[in-house]
Design goal:
The protein has 443 residues and is of the alpha/beta class. It has helices at 34-43, 60-72, 101-106, 114-121, 140-148, 179-189, 205-216, 248-261, 276-284, 322-329, 348-355, 385-397, 408-413, 417-423, and strands spanning 15-19, 24-29, 50-54, 75-78, 86-90, 98-99, 123-127, 152-156, 159-163, 171-173, 195-199, 220-222, 228-232, 240-243, 263-268, 288-292, 295-300, 308-311, 335-340, 359-363, 366-370, 379-381, 401-405, 428-431. Helices cover 30% and strands 25% of the residues. Helix 4 packs parallel to helix 6. The chain binds ligand EPZ.
C-alpha cells in the first residue's frame, strides 16, 4: 500500500503572496502532464501485470487518482526504491468496481475508471459527477459510447451502474470531441471483442500519450491525434514502463508569466509541437518566443499588443490557457476579445482581475478586455487551477502586493508552481494562512 503523501489537508488554507515588478531570468524544467498522467494511471487498471510510470508530476490530483485505484484493489507505490516522480502500479487483484461520491466530487477525472472496470470486470458503479466551477460537465458522451459497446446503463441514488457481460467493438460518433469520452471509450474498447472506431474523436496530445501507453502494454490503438481512432480489442494487456509527456499547459503558463513579467526565461523539457497555438498567439501579441534544442525561450520587455482569442478543441487554442492569457491581455495595448467555446462558465477569474484594476466586460461566451496601463496588487481568490495560475501571473506585474487564496486549486495541477517562479527571480512566497510571513517551501 502507498505510504508517501505530499499534500495534506492543512495546506488547503495556504496563500501565495507576490510583490510585482520583478522580471524573470533563468531556466524552468517542465513536469509531466497532469492531463496525460491521470488517464494513464487509470489505464493501468487494464493490465494484470506491473506498470511503471515515470515523469509523474507531484500533484494533488495524482494522489487522488491513486487513492481511487487503491480502493479498487490496485497495489500502488509512489517513488518506489527512492526513484522520484515514479508510480508503480499492479492491478492484478481488483476487488471493487465503485468510484464513490467522495472521490468523484473531489475530482471529476475519477469517472475515467469506468472504461477499464467494464473491460476488466464487466461492471462499474460510478457516482454521477456534479458540475464544477467551470461548467456542468456532463458525461453523456461517455455513456453513449459505452452503450454502443453493449453496456447496460442504469442510474439510481446519484450513481451510474454500468454492466456488460461482453464488450463488443462498435463504430461510435462523438457529437463533441470530448477528451474524457474519447479516453474512456478507448480504454474500454482496448479489451473488447472486435474493432471499435471512434469518429470526431478528441485530438489532444494527452490522448496520443494514453494510446502509446496502452499499446506499450500490448494494445492495438491507431489514429490518435486525428479525428478517427481505431481500436482492435485484445485478450489481455501486460506490463510496461512509460514516461509521461511534458505538460503543455504548465509550459504555456510559464511562457505567459515570462511575457508579462518581462526578462528572459528558458523552458526545458517541452514538446514544441504541442504548444503551437499558444506560441502563435504570443507572437501575434508581439512577444519574442524562440525554439532552442529541447526548449522554448521567451524574451519580453513587458509590452504587447491586444488580440482576439477563441478557445477550441486541439489543435485550436486551449481552454486551459484562456485565463492566463486574460491576465496578459489585461495590460496589452488595445482592446482584446476572448471567446470561450469549450466551457460555459470559465470567466470567474475576470472578476478577480477586475479587483486588480483590469478593465474587463463579460458578454455571454465572450469577454472584452480593454488594456490598461497597469494592474495593482489585491487580495484575490482562485476559482479553479488555471484561474489560480492566471492570478499569480497577474501578480507578477501588478504594483505592490497580491495575495492569492484558495491555492489548493493550484496544487491540483501545478507541480511546485511557486518554487519554480521563485527560482527565476519572482518575488513570491507561499505562506500558511495562520502565519503570514513564515516562508513555507512547497513540497
Ligand atoms: C479535459 O477535461 C481536461 N481534464 C480539462 O482540463 C480540459 O479543459 C478539457 O479536457 C478540454 O480540453 C483532464 O484531462 C483531466 P471534455 P474533460 O470532455 O475530459 C462537454 C484543466 O484545467 N461534454 O473535452 O472533462 C463538456 O461539458 C482541466 O487541466 C459533454 O457535453 O473535457 C465541456 O463543455 C479543466 N458531454 C466540453 O464537452 C460529455 O460526455 C469539453 O469537455 C463530455 C463532455
Amino acid at each position: 500500500m502507498r505510504k508517501k503523501r505530499f499534500f495534506c489537508p492543512e495546506g488547503q488554507a495556504d496563500k501565495i503572496i507576490i510583490y510585482g515588478g520583478q522580471p524573470l531570468q533563468g531556466k524552468i524544467a517542465i513536469s509531466g502532464a497532469k492531463n496525460a498522467v491521470l488517464p494513464i494511471i487509470v489505464a493501468a487498471l487494464l493490465s494484470k501485470e506491473t506498470c511503471l510510470i515515470q515523469d509523474v508530476p507531484r500533484l494533488a490530483d495524482v494522489e487522488i487518482i491513486c487513492d481511487v485505484l487503491s480502493e479498487l484493489g490496485a497495489k500502488i507505490k509512489l517513488d518506489p526504491n527512492g526513484s522520484a516522480h515514479t508510480v508503480e502500479i499492479n492491478c492484478r487483484d481488483l476487488h471493487n468496481y465503485e468510484a464513490t461520491y467522495d472521490y468523484v466530487k473531489k475530482m471529476r477525472a475519477s469517472v475515467l475508471v469506468m472504461g477499464p472496470l467494464l473491460a476488466r470486470l464487466g461492471k462499474a458503479k460510478i457516482s454521477m459527477p456534479g458540475g464544477c466551477a467551470i461548467g456542468t460537465r456532463p458525461i453523456d458522451l461517455h455513456l453513449k459510447g459505452f452503450e454502443a459497446l453493449g453496456v447496460r446503463i442504469t442510474m439510481e441514488h446519484g450513481y451510474i451502474l454500468a454492466e456488460a457481460p461482453v464488450l463488443k467493438g462498435a463504430r461510435i460518433y462523438l457529437d463533441y470531441p470530448s477528451v474524457g469520452a474519447t479516453e474512456n471509450i478507448m480504454m474500454a474498447a482496448s479489451l473488447a471483442q472486435g474493432t471499435t472506431i471512434i469518429e470526431n474523436a478528441a485530438e489532444e496530445p494527452e490522448i496520443v500519450d494514453l494510446a502509446n501507453f496502452i499499446n506499450s502494454m500490448g494494445g492495438k490503438v491507431v489514429g490518435t491525434g486525428t479525428k478517427v481512432i481505431k481500436i482492435e480489442g485484445v485478450e489481455s494487456l501486460g506490463a510496461t514502463s512509460h514516461t509521461v509527456i511534458p505538460d503543455r499547459i504548465e509550459a504555456g503558463s510559464f511562457l505567459v508569466a515570462g511575457a508579462i513579467a518581462g526578462g528572459d526565461l528558458f523552458l526545458e523539457n517541452v514538446i514544441i509541437d504541442h504548444l503551437k497555438p499558444v506560441v502563435a498567439k504570443l507572437r501575434e501579441a508581439g512577444v519574442e518566443v524562440t525554439e532552442e534544442d529541447l526548449g522554448l525561450r521567451v524574451r519580453s520587455e513587458g509590452k504587447f499588443q491586444a488580440l482576439d482569442l477563441k478557445t477550441l478543441p486541439y489543435p485550436g487554442f486551449p481552454t486551459d490557457m484562456q485565463a492566463q492569457f486574460m491576465s496578459l491581455l489585461a495590460i496589452a495595448q488595445g482592446t482584446s476579445i476572448i471567446t470561450e467555446t469549450v466551457f460555459e462558465n470559465r470567466f470567474m477569474h475576470a472578476e478577480e482581475l477586475r479587483r486588480m484594476g483590469a478593465d474587463i466586460r463579460i458578454e455571454g461566451r465572450s469577454v472584452v478586455v480593454e488594456g490598461t496601463e497597469k494592474l495593482t496588487g489585491a487580495q484575490v481568490k482562485a476559482s479553479d487551477l488555471r484561474a489560480g495560475a492566471a492570478l499569480v501571473i497577474a501578480g507578477l506585474v501588478a504594483e505592490g502586493e497580491t495575495i492569492v487564496s484558495d491555492i489548493y486549486h493550484l496544487d491540483r495541477g501545478y507541480d511546485n508552481f511557486v518554487t519554480k517562479l521563485h527560482s527565476v527571480g519572482a518575488n513570491i512566497i507561499r505562506v500558511k494562512s495562520r502565519d503570514r510571513l513564515r516562508l513555507v517551501s512547497e513540497v
